[in-house]
UniProtKB/TrEMBL annotation:
TPR repeat residue numbers: 270-303, 480-513
Pfam family, one: TPR_19
Keyword Nucleus belongs to the record: no
Superkingdom classification of source: Bacteria
Source lineage: Bacteria, Pseudomonadati, Pseudomonadota, Alphaproteobacteria, Acetobacterales
Species for this entry: Teichococcus globiformis
InterPro entries: TPR-like_helical_dom_sf, TPR_rpt
Entry keyword annotation includes Transmembrane: yes
Keywords, comma-separated and alphabetical: Membrane, TPR repeat, Transmembrane, Transmembrane helix
Transmembrane spans: 91-108
Name the record gives this protein: Tetratricopeptide repeat protein
Amino acid sequence: MSDTPRVRVFDNGVTTATFIDAAALHGTLVVTFDPFTYLNPDGPGFGEAVLVASGYDVLAFQKRQENFYQELTREDVAAVLKPYQHRYRRLVFYGCSVGAYAVLYFGTDFEADILSISPRVSTHPIYVRELRLSARWAELHKHGSMADRPSRARQVALIYDPVLVNQPAAKADILFMEQEILPGFPGITIHALRHTGHPSASSLAETHQLRPLLSQFLEQGRMDFAPYQALRASSPTYMMNFSAWLLERGKARWAASLAQRAVDLAPQLANVHFQRSHTHLAFGEFDEARQAARLALNIEPHRHHERLRLLNAFEAAGDLDGMTGLISDALELPEAALVSTARCALAGRAAQMLDTAGRTEEALAFALRAVTLGGRPNHLLQQAAQLQLKLGYWEEALGVLDEAAGLRADAALTHRLRAKALVELSRTGDAQAALRRAATLDSGDWTLHLQMAELHAMNYEAQQARQILQNIVHDAPPSAALLLGVARVHLKLAEDRTALETLQQALRLAPEDMEVRLLLAVTQRGLGQTAAALKLVEQALALRPDHVSLRRLHHELREEAAAFS
């Protein structure tokens, strides 16, 4: 191979074409296109070593960057091939993954045979839609439809896995085949190899059948898959994919045995350990699942998509410690293995999960780590401060929030939280200023005005509190929750009758709101309206007989009514 000359015959800066002369022993020129993320045009192309060793001349199209061959036109390929076509009796296009797409798209213009293994092109509108990719991906796609002209190809064979599991693009693959490939190549021969994964070439190579099948196609124009079918159990990729398919259908024990078989066959492959972790989780074997996950991620720490899938699985299984353990490992990775933005997102996720579980101290540690990794943006500072407030770390929270308030992207939430910390530190005047700033930034949030009224009430500034409450009642959109808050402030101001009127208004807006009914009954009771309160509570209990506070109040009111009867 090293003695075979490689001559660069095309280079547009992104895509290259290189001719490799193997003395044309077969009178066949094989045109190959590299798969996804093969980005070294100075190295051998897809299948080049095998083809040249077998005496086939090769024209290898390769990429310097992953552009899905969108910078290459059919006219470019025709111009590259023109000097060679008269020298060969037969032309064959051969590719895998995005290379499999390319051999179909470019090969349709030639009287050629085409072997396409697991075609996929993520820039196509079908993939952009199904995978919900950004508009940037759609803008990359410049090729037209495969069916925009009659195909001149002679024999076209396609190999793929029809039952892909854990592949977000699986549905898009099928749609692409139905809407693009089949209309463009009506006579295509489809070879559906279940559980070979994407690309199917992996399972074929592991069973040492890829080379024989390629030779059969080149020499005879047909392929015999019986030897592969007999050997497929020796493919770790096949066993892993079969295991995932079984696990998806609830056949956990069978799935676990196949996953272990895959590990035994190829313990050096990260994918088999990923799958073994999932099968352990199905049985609640958390320690074993964590161990398998760590093995996989130690082998391939850059597999962030798989890391996220594992985190989702650990979360679904209820193993929070497994989740946070994987995240802790990820946070120690260097930038080259996992960028800081991804580590920041993981730390934030751990903080949220731990907070939900009531493990606030641990949540705060992750939140502060996220702040550092993320460059101290507003939302992460807010997250950390909220946890500090939960823990009663008033001074620390205020320091974090003061930092957030100094950022260009000032936010109402920052000042709302600052007000809470300032109140706890008995700095009521500063808290009022913080709330006024929050209301300026978010004038439509009437709860901020309510909080200001509460602060005035706490500070014995009844007139100011009363004015704000009147503004809320008259100007804010009708809201039972807001009126409930207004009533509570009136009660703090010892304005029980005004509170009663406000609660009656709230009840008209939300007649089934038990909190409104409860406070209204308590207020009626305080004003000596025991009979009215009892009637209201009995009506509420008819709706919610299990409401503990209402039942307690009902008992007390009945005793009071009996005492005065």
